Amino acid sequence: MTDLKTWSPAQVLEHAEYKLSLLPHKDSLSCDFYRGVIASIKELQMTQSATEQSAVPTMMGWDKLAERGLVFRINYEILHPLGLAMAYDANTGLSSGAHVASDGVWNFSDEILSYAANRGWLK
Q: Which InterPro entries does the entry link to (predicted)?
């Protein structure tokens, strides 16, 4: 299995674009997920090109990813069905991992689902 941690943003972008091209229904949640990944990587690449002279890579904390709806989507589409929930410290933007549901189930409240739908994170 490939270690995704070693992939460059360009490799992740290429893979996401490829996966998006394979999906038959272009209005599915999976397509939205890949479009979100593609948009985030392109934004990251623009940020990196603007600071190209810096030797330190630009990092985006989980708090910034949450503002874009990616933490919601990762939890809702991937982790919650597995009984997991990604968490991060809102003050630092750092995550120490995922919570494990004692009963194997994680669900968002109707209020959170409505909030996400109003922002276009959920269709």
A: DUF7415
Q: In whole angstroms, what is the distance from residue 76 CA to residue 81 CA?
A: 7
Among 59, 122, 41, which Cα is nearest to 95's? 59
- CA-atom Rg of the chain in angstroms: 16
pTM: 0.53
Provide the strand spans (E) within 38-101: 84-87, 97-100
- Residue 100's beta-bridge partner residues? 84
Identify the CA nearest to 34 among candidates 78, 64, 88: 78
Distance CA 61, CA 14 (A): 22
Q: How far apart are CA 11 and CA 31, in angstroms?
A: 18
pLDDT at 101: 93
Give the number of other CB atoms < 10 A from CB of residue 36: 19
